[in-house]
Amino acid sequence: MCSKLIVKIFALWALFFALCANAVPMCPLNLPEGPIVIYEDQLSDGWNKDWSWATKVEEQWAPGGQNGSYAMKVIYGSAWQGLELHRNNFPTLGKTALSFRIMKAQAQGDIFVRLRDANGGDNHFVPVSSYLSSNQSTTFVAGQWYSINIPLADFGMQGVPLSGIIFQSDTAGTAYVDNVMITEAFKLPLPGGKNWLLTTEVGDGGCTAASSPLPSHTGNNYFSLDFDNTSQTGGEESNVPVLAMAGGKVLFAGFISDTLERCNGYHVVINHDYNGNTSTGISTRYLHLVAGSITVKKDDIVSQGEKLGTLGDTGSGLSGCGSPWGTHSHIGFRFNGNGSSDIFSLQNITMEGRKLSDYTATCSGGESNKIFSLKQHTKIISSFVLC
To answer: What is the model's pTM?
Structure first.
């Protein structure tokens, strides 16, 4: 009797381990979608300012920030005092940047930001002045709000759990901080599992630009890319969905008939700090969608990978818009409403792990032959096997 029971127990254990070895993980840990909001009118649950030192901090200062009702008011009595926003061990996998708004009461001096890892260590002091408007260090204008976007890689902290965000001043004075968040990584806007043809680069480089009657990736549209509807595996494809590169709030969805905008055709604009204001933070633009295909409307909140419409060519061939361009996806990035070449925050944006300027089209016979792979639009989960 006992020997038979032991045999059955071993058989059950063998079956259990065999199932575990081939099973899909039973308990995946879903990481937060969208931005990690740390402060917006008040500190989010689990966050505190108790680790700040030698500063006087007013968490809900009115009349408040650039958006909403309140901002944090920080009085630095002397140099190198610090505001620290603390939360134990929060994940940043799938996130790429620290975003916030800041205003100084005095023009002199700078604010330096540090991140603490989960063990309390910190690597780099990052001067905010380097991110005000261009790739050259500039000085603050007293009483002016600035939207700041600093890649986590600049802190040496991308993808690691964090425990604190520190704002230090190198002089005595007063600063105001608002809309603090960790933002997610951008993904390309076409279906994963295929390679899609890139035709026009950032700054209007590539193959189609030389013959185009109207420069499309210059001036305010400098940080833009064009992807054709041709995939490496399927050739020229139809009914290709265009997907949100990151979560956010829809600023515009539709068609504008005036001369300046009609060349965009049917298009969608998304604001990625979720406040619905095109003049703050990062926004993305998805142009030339098929008429009637747009699936979102103004003020909708969308998730990364959500369908916005169908890849098309609306706007091309209209009066003042040049000759027809053919079906393609024009995607564009802007920061604080500006997409020009000197915007430092856009120079450092990554999409699928590449800077926008790293997407290059190689020409042969007047056509682009450079294919870029797109990753699947999937939620990032940890690998965790119950058994």
So the answer is: 0.67
**What are the tokens at 383?**
């690998």
Confidence tier at 383 by pLDDT (50, 70, 90): very low
Task: Give the model confidence (pLDDT) of 66-99 as tens digits.
Answer: 566 899 999 999 999 999 999 998 888 878 889 8
- Please state whether beta strands 235-236 and 241-243 pair in parallel, antiparallel, or not at all (unpaired): unpaired
Q: Which residues pair with 231 in a beta bridge?
A: 196, 235
Contact call for residues 285 and 334 (beta carbons, < 8 A) = yes
Residue whose C-alpha is closest to residue 168's, from 122, 137, 136: 122
pLDDT tens across 302-326, in order? 988 899 999 998 888 787 776 677 7
Token pair in block for residue 319: 């009066």
Q: For residue 63, is the peptide bond before it cis, meaning its omega torsion is within 30 degrees of 0?
A: yes
Contact 282, 349 (CB under 8 A): yes
Using CA of residue 157, residue 159, residue 162, residue 167, what is the dihedral sign? positive
Listed residue (102, 92, 151, 94) closest to 124, CA to CA: 151
Kindly report the backbone phi and psi dihedral angles of residue 128, in degrees, each rounded to the nearest multiple of 5, phi listed first: -65, -30
Residues 10-46 as b or e (16 or more Cβ within 10 Å = b): eeeeeeeeeeeeeeeeeeeeebbebbbbbbbbebeee
* Cβ-based neighbour number of residue 80 at 10 Å: 12
Nearest to 230 by CA among 267, 264, 199: 199
Q: How many CB atoms lie within 10 A of CB 228?
A: 23
Contacts 24+ apart (CB under 8 A), 4-7: none
CA-nearest of 127, 217, 130 to 171 is: 127
Least confident of 14-23, 361-370, 372-381: 372-381
Cα–Cα nearest to 358, from 368, 369, 344, 372: 372
Average pLDDT over residues 154-179: 92
Closest by Cα among 9, 186, 166, 161 to 92 = 161
Distance of alpha carbon 144 from alpha carbon 244, whole angstroms: 31
> Residue 328: beta bridge partners?
228, 312
Structure tokens belonging to residue 5: 């029971």
3-state secondary structure of 64: coil
DSSP-assigned letters across all residues of 173-193 = EEEEEEEEEEEEPB--SS-SS
